[in-house]
Specification:
Number of helices: 9
Strand order of the largest sheet: 1-2-3-4-5
Distance between the termini: 29 Å
Structural class: alpha/beta
Strand content: 5-15%
Number of strands: 5
């Protein structure tokens, strides 16, 4: 309940309504047909790999793959919601591990390629249906011009979530390594693990 109260700025009636709506939504997402987006799960558009220093699951969103696979906004939204609910149901420890850390990798993404509508939809879906579940959202390898565009996504989230959205160019490693030990991080992010190139689904947090 606390997560919903923070998200609604302590509006009790709105919190009550959102909790009821959320419970109904969870019933539908757990029974979701995964066939429309199964390919993208296995391609690694979104994948889970290892945990941070506080045992939070680490999620990676590969923006280059998001573009190249041509996943639709509807497929992306359904996939991310299914994936995140899967993590809550199977990879959390109530009272100890209840949120995740996300890396949004924009390596090799040009200014004209940024999928703004998909980013807005993804962030909005995460905010509405997974209140308080996001610990930090690292946007990395972001060019200066894209940083300006990325700011538009901030207008679609509440202040509480906004403080968790971190935008970096190639200068992210020092900050990221404070949250994730290099032993649990891929080489591409300055860690010691081999870069993950396959077996993206199901998530591997151990």
């Amino acid at each position: 309940m606390l997560r919903f109260l923070q998200g609604t700025k302590w509006d009790y009636q709105l919190t009550y309504n959102e909790i009821l709506e959320h419970e109904e939504w969870k019933k539908t997402i757990r029974d979701l047909d995964t066939k429309p987006f199964a390919k993208y799960l296995h391609d690694g558009v979104l994948y889970g790999y290892k945990r941070d220093n506080s045992e939070r699951p680490i999620l990676v969103i590969n923006c280059r793959k998001l573009i190249d696979t041509k996943v639709s906004l509807e497929e992306l939204t359904q996939m991310s919601q299914y994936y995140l609910q899967f993590i809550i149901d199977r990879c959390m420890v109530p009272g100890h591990v209840e949120n995740w850390l996300a890396i949004f990798d924009m390596t090799d993404v040009g200014v004209s390629e940024v999928p703004k509508d998909k980013l807005k939809g993804l962030v909005a879906a995460m905010q509405k249906n997974f209140r308080g579940r996001l610990y930090k959202f690292y946007s990395i390898e972001v060019t200066y011009v894209v940083k300006v565009l990325w700011q538009t996504a901030h207008r679609f989230v509440d202040d509480f979530t906004n403080r968790k959205l971190l935008i970096y160019g190639d200068d992210y490693k020092q900050a990221l390594h404070k949250d994730i030990d290099v032993e649990n991080l891929e080489e591409r992010y300055g860690g010691k693990l081999p870069n993950k190139v396959d077996n993206f689904w199901p998530p591997q947090f151990c």
